[in-house]
Amino acid sequence: MTTSLPNIELPPDLRPSDGRFGSGPSKVRPDAVAALAGVASTYLGTSHRQPTVKNVVRRLREGVAELLDVPDGYEIVLGNGGTTAFWDAAAFGLIERRAQHLSFGEFSSKFAAVTKAAPFLDSPEVIESPPGTHPELEANPEVDAYALPHNETSTGVAMEVRRPAGAEGLMLVDATSAAAGLCVDPTQFDAYYFAPQKGFASDGGLWVAALSPAAVERISAVKASDRWIPTFLDLSVALENSRLDQTYNTPALATLFLMVHQLEWILENGGKEWAASRCDRSADIVYGWADASGYATPFVADKGDRSHVVATIDLAPEVDAATVAKVLRANNIVDTESYRKLGRNQLRIAMFVAIEPDDLATLTGAIDFIAGQIGA
Q1: Are the C-beta atoms of residues 75 and 203 closer than 8 Å to each other?
Q2: pLDDT confidence of residue 376
Q3: Any idea which fold 12-28+271-374 has?
Q4: For 74-113, how does the pLDDT look when each residue is reduced to its tens digit (9 = 90+)?
Q5: What is the pTM of this model?
Q6: Cβ atoms within 10 A of the Cβ of 59, count?
Q7: Other beta carbons less than 10 A from residue 62's beta carbon
Q8: Helix (H) / strand (E) containing 269
Q9: Residue 94 carries which DSSP code?
Q10: Which pLDDT value is given to residue 4?
């Protein structure tokens, strides 16, 4: 049976200046789009082997190194395919024999599935915990790579990036929704990789990774072994091309430009401390509202584990979250739906640095207004 959508029109003061709150792809800042349009005739549709594009790649690599404040010897590498492609590339080129994975949501479990399926690797050690929590890494002498997400986008759980005591393997950290919003100590990772469609307010289809000298050495060692590696997923090829400020395959030029525009906007405003504090302010608004609400509750019970870039908020049974999200969408406020496989009566709200904190405050008021109309 189909239930008709309530005809609820939000008053003007409950309409954010920008209604995009998706957890990826995320809001792209209008200034970045305007800047891209301004260079379209000399940038879009040009060769990625020429200075016009290579200069953008150089700015990307230098900007990420500055944002993350990486130590000397770390390298910024990029390639096509997004985070999913990087998981395959890491299985081929960064894991020698066996990985340990933390699995506590959809995306962390997907990387574990990749290494489990790889016929040239031993079965990984997978440490799991229920959605809404995270497990901890455990030093294991049989493991040569530790894989974890800095932020699990599907559940709104963030965790500190920290090498387990006594561990000697590489630290491979999925930062797809964390980069540009959460602070990290670069000495605690060997590969900090992400796609640009979340915190960097761009489109997908690209991966970027900050690699430590140990990771670069591992890439070389694996390449020298008898393992077959597809050229598209060969990190030594990606490293070689990145050092030339280019990608092995033709990249999406708009994606590169939009990411660099967002990156330089963050750096001009104060870098990672400014970006993280802006996300902290947004998190205070959203979680503060949910904690004080009579019908909304943060899904992540431990306050220290609550993500400051993606909030997951459970609603009381009498307030149907799917209906709330549909009414919001009808009022041009989009992508607040729960992650599809989590199956909860929940809203998922992005709080990336490009999203105005004041818009999040307006959003919470809009949700209250809708909830009051349909059941709370």
Answers
A1: no
A2: 60
A3: Aspartate Aminotransferase, domain 1 (3.90.1150)
A4: 999 999 999 999 999 999 999 999 999 999 999 899 999 9
A5: 0.96
A6: 18
A7: 15
A8: helix 253-269
A9: T
A10: 79
Output the average pLDDT for the chain.
96
Distance, in Å, from the CA atom of 125 to the CA atom of 100, rounded to the nearest integer, reads: 5
Pairing type for strands 75-80 and 157-158 reads unpaired
* Dihedral, CA of residue 91, residue 92, residue 94 and residue 95, to nearest 10: 60
Helix then strand then coil, in percent of the chain rounded to 5, is 40, 15, 45
- Half-sphere exposure at residue 200, Cβ-oriented, CA atoms within 13 angstroms: 29
Domain with CATH 3.90.1150.10 in the chain: 12-28+271-374
Domain with CATH 3.40.640.10 in the chain: 39-268
Closest by CA to 354, choosing from 11, 23, 9, is 23
CA distances (Å), origin 275, targets 26, 179, 240, 259, 363: 16, 10, 31, 15, 20
As a whole number of angstroms, the longest Cα–Cα distance in the chain is: 65
Contacts of 101 (CB under 8 A, 6+ apart): 108, 111, 112, 115, 124, 125, 126, 127, 147, 148
Residue 6, preceding bond cis, omega within 30 degrees? Answer: no
Check pLDDT > 70 for residue 1: no
Residue 83 near residue 193, CB atoms below 8 Å: yes
Helix 30-43 to helix 51-68 angle, to the nearest 10 degrees? 150
Amino acid at residue number 328: L
Query: Can you tell me the distance from the alpha carbon of 248 to that of 225, in angstroms, rounded to the nearest whole number?
Result: 22
Instruction: Please calculate the CA angle 26-28-32 and round it to the nearest 5 degrees.
Output: 160
Query: Given CA atoms 26, 30, 36, 41 in this order, what sign does their dihedral have?
Result: positive
Using DSSP's 3-state secondary structure scheme, residue 81 falls into coil
Q: What is the pLDDT of residues 217-249, one digit of tens each?
A: 999 999 999 999 999 999 999 999 999 999 999
pLDDT tens, residue by residue, 244-267: 999 999 999 999 999 999 999 999
Q: Which residue has the tokens 């230098």?
A: 62
CATH architecture of residue range(s) 39-268: 3-Layer(aba) Sandwich (3.40)
